[in-house]
Specification:
The protein is α/β, with parallel strands linked by helices. The chain has 12 helices and 10 strands. Helix 2 crosses helix 3.
């Protein structure tokens, strides 16, 4: 397993990490999976055998049940051999303070997550979304205090726009608080908006990408084909509303290119899609998910080899779209706005 630095920090993480969205199977995310502690323990065994020791969760996954299952699955294991990541910000109760990134809610969320996970610290803690109602100074001073207390070690964000992240980094620099070193971001061959602003920002400011939904909400598994109905067990039946809409013809075009490259390298379509991401600038780790052992083993096959430059170019061309303004305009002046490398 290859390890990379998490942004501009000294912390190294495996290039693949396991997401726990399928753990628990309760509430709005029940359609993702219903993995219990026994199944989760087996998956973690497989991950550790492959050198994958980073596990990502969130307090809203199955209404906290995902963290509880993860905590049960790691119980009795050597804690220092594991990297535990989780998130908070979204609503976690009916009260007026049970949402957002206020000092009250973040402190409450971290304490509750530690209890559900059965650990005394969280290695990587991320804000699940931006809270425009709370001053960034309140957010960052709280996170800095939690780091100093030893309850969390590194911090990151998720689903922030460029100015959200840059404003926060500037506040950290101004007051000497801990900086965000990770951006848990949506990025895939059918969702490349990350490249427009957040990737250049990550390069400039030393923020590593922690990629979520790398297979485009299940559209890049190889099971979605032109002229064929959705597979019976596709997560798109129940979770399509969570992800961005994608034109069917664009998906088919990308899948055709993935299929061609997969045949060239003797790999599966998901493995090629994941390997493409691992060659992109700023990417520290790609969060993979799995309903069962077979999916997990297939995803683990995305490492230990690399696509050629020609194969990457083929996939780039098939997945390219016209960026929104001002990015399409900036792209016309490459001598001043070079592509990230």
């Amino acid at each position: 397993m290859e390890y990379r630095r998490l942004g501009h920090s000294g912390f190294k993480v495996p290039v693949l990490s396991l997401g726990t969205g399928t753990f628990g199977g309760k509430g709005a995310l029940a359609g993702w999976g219903t993995t219990d502690v026994k199944e989760a323990s087996r998956m973690i065994d497989l991950c550790l055998e492959a050198g994958l020791n980073m596990f990502d969760s969130a307090d809203v996954y199955s209404n906290g049940s995902a963290e509880e299952v993860l905590g049960g699955a790691i119980k009795g294991r050597k804690r220092d051999d594991l990297i535990i990541s989780t998130k908070a910000t979204f609503r976690k109760g009916k009260g007026p303070n049970d949402v957002g990134s206020s000092r009250y809610h973040l402190t409450q969320s971290v304490e509750a997550a530690l209890k559900r996970l059965g650990t005394d610290h969280i290695d990587q803690f991320q804000l699940h979304g931006f809270d425009a109602m709370t001053p960034v100074e309140e957010v960052l001073s709280t996170l800095d205090e939690l780091i100093r207390a030893g309850k969390i070690r590194y911090i990151g964000v998720s689903n922030f726009s460029g100015w959200h992240l840059m404003k926060s980094l500037s506040a950290s620099d101004r007051y000497g608080w801990s900086r965000y070193v990770a951006n848990q971001t949506y990025y895939s061959l059918i969702g490349r908006e990350y490249e427009w602003e957040l990737m250049p920002l990550g390069i400039d400011q030393g923020v590593g990408a922690v990629v979520w939904s790398p297979l485009g909400w299940g559209r890049l598994t190889g099971k979605i084909r032109r002229g064929q109905p959705l597979p019976e067990n596709s997560r798109l039946h129940t979770t399509a509303s969570f992800g961005p809409p994608v034109d069917d013809e664009h998906v088919f075009k990308v899948v055709d290119a993935l299929d061609a490259v997969a045949n060239e390298v003797g790999k599966t379509i998901p493995q090629v899609a994941l390997n493409w991401l691992l060659q992109r600038p700023t990417v520290s780790t790609v969060v993979i998910g799995a309903r069962d052992e077979s999916q997990l083993k297939d995803n683990l096959g995305a490492i230990g080899w690399n696509l050629t430059l020609e194969q990457v170019a083929k996939l780039d061309a098939a997945s390219a779209v016209t960026p929104a303004y001002p990015y399409w305009h900036q792209a016309q002046f490459m001598e001043r706005n070079p592509k990230p490398v």
